[in-house]
Amino acid sequence: MWDLINTSIYASFLLSIAIGVIGSLIVINKTTAITGSIAHGSFGGIGFALYLGSSVILTTSLFTALLAVILAFITIRFPHRQDSLIGVIWAVGMSIGIIFLSLTPGYQSDAISYLFGNILLVENRDLIFMGIIDLVILISIIFLYHRFLAMSYDREFLKLRGINADLLYTYFLILTSLTIVMSVRAIGIILILALFTIPALIAEKFTKKFFTMMILSGVLGFVFMAGGIIISFYYNISPTPTIVIMAAVTLLLSLFKKS
Amino acid sequence: MKAVEVKNLYFKYENEWVLEDINFELEDKKFMAIIGPNGGGKTTLLKLLLGFLTPTKGEIKIYNKPPKENREIIGYVPQHTNFSLDLPITVFDIVLQGRLKKGKFFYSQEDKEKAKETLKSLNIYELKDKKIKNLSGGQRQKVLIARALVSEPKILMMDEPTSAIDPRGQKEILDMIENFNITRIVVSHDIKILLRNVDKIAYIHKKAVIHEGPKLNIPKDKHFCEVELIEFLKDEACGI
Predict the structure, then answer these.
(1) Which of A72, A82, A213, B48 is the 20 to 30 Å CA partner of A36?
(2) Which helix (H) or strand (E) holds B45?
């Protein structure tokens, strides 16, 4: 049992790095709906992988990266229709997943576990994938911090400075998609949005600089996950909803902070 | 030296002509105001001058090159009301963005010094560590002007620089713009700009009527007054 808890605490640490950076970028770029669309759409990749019997991580990574590119194109090319089109991708991705699952023989309990997630079920190979994605995210943020910040504030100005803002935005959505893939087993498709956005929303209220917002968001993400794991262990309840409720209560309390 | 050359410019959006046969030139270090009614095409013209849009027909040159090839020398000040105020970003971080360029990932000491110098020159250095949310409209606009100036542009283009700013702030900003020693183009629906030392006025309502400055001395310019101008112009400036 302690092995399970240890692994899930390691997973919480690794997830909190990605969530701190990408979650903060999602909040300041107002891409929560896009993230929801990629997260739910990722079910298509999971269904496809289970049907083929291929690696869920690899197949879903490729599938969600493709969704990220499509969504980047839609939001850049059709900004006035993005809201509806994001919803379409959301539903189509899930539908693809359900179709492939219905074509796959036997009961697919694995697929259901991806919907709701369970951080206690994370395995060592998942930790390796999480570590690799964290490394990619950290290298990206070191080199692209100023560009991401400028993109979040004024994408048009970035273009004027000779920087390909559309390509940068597409890369950000691809990083988002990889963060989703590394989180689905632990957090689940349905609850992913809460853990990506709540720590960042709280951190935003208490910080003056984006850099400190990312750090505080990561720390909060870790505290919520580790706290949720411990509470769920002692009260024998599901960890992911416990994590989300803890985070939501903290967000509620933070709203009382004066601007 | 010609800073801006616009020749036979046409722009069509969704099968409708937004701009037709626009022609004007602007000399180096001169100040031009683009005015006109909402929906008349003045912001479209600014986006064409910035290279964000491509002309359907005709030609634009900024210091002898198409705008897209000469963006390094253009400083752009958008409307301060366009941006999210919740972003955790300080004034200094925003101003530094003007030093970003292709192939550059980190700010140098020189960039930071230049940003400080620009903030001082606009008398907003004491705001450098403040969050953008905690500034007045006029201060936010000055921050955007500083971000444009920090790249040391040869031409400054501004979109409604006095909108949503109190009268005192508007005066400060217009005084500031008037005194910059670079080429300036200001798009504005606020006719107070016409009472400033502008060298050229373009009245845009699909087509352009160009008035040569200095200052609006319109009673002498019958042609300009006879076009479709806003009431204020007719009453206050043209004396009609």
Answers:
(1) A213
(2) helix B42-50
